[in-house]
Amino acid sequence: MLQSGTEEVLAVARIFGTEREFRERYPEGRLVDLIDYIALDEQNFSSIVCSIEAARRNAREERNNITVDLWESLNGLWLELGARRRGPRAVLDRGALVEFVKKQSVMAFGAAQVTLLRDEAYDFLQAGAFLERADNTAAMLDVKFHHLRPDGEPHARELDYYAWAEVLDCIGAFRTYRRIYRTALDPMKVVELMLLRRDVPRSVHHALSVVDASLASLTAAYGARGEADRLAGELHARLRFARIDQVFTIGLAKFLADARRDIALLSDEIGRQYLFD
Asked: How many domains does the chain have?
């Protein structure tokens, strides 16, 4: 029998596209199992430990093309994570581990932003990072919004303040929301911030604007445009000119599903245009 709170746990697994695999591995659906699966499971190739290991391996292979600051940030993160994992799992502070990884990942990303040469490699890094960010934010918004509002309607007489604050905390934007809107939490405004605000670094719009700009730089470097450029421009324009009332007229679930489908298509087209042809 599923324990209380399992639906919330499965909603998080759904954001990362691992709900089926998680349920097969951990039928009880406990929160501690989800944290271990997402953070520490070496059989889950999208887990934190696997992702950091892959990033560190790639950085080691490109030592001559990255800066010392970036290498030391990634290598330090990998070494500290390994040291913490070697301790007894029963006394592992998982919350502290996740917070540590978040802070060190931001430092590594910051090192890349302020020290890397602005060449084609940097443009590919930006395009890949922000494509993933756009998809992650869209998935997070889709799952969280429809978990709290199953009918898809943004207007509610009663609002779970802490639940909606948690949605904003997922992208570190709770204080940003209060600064922009200066009103009580409103589901429609939460969606607008996460989806359509270009000035919010974790929004879908901002991420796709960076992807579009990165592909424009690659076009200038390689001297040719292709389907990837068209898709990037179309996606960016869709978010740039959309209005929040139009999004809900279309249906938030449909709007996000279409965007995520096209983000995946764009990722494939970038591979075909630059890596495989």
From this structure: 1
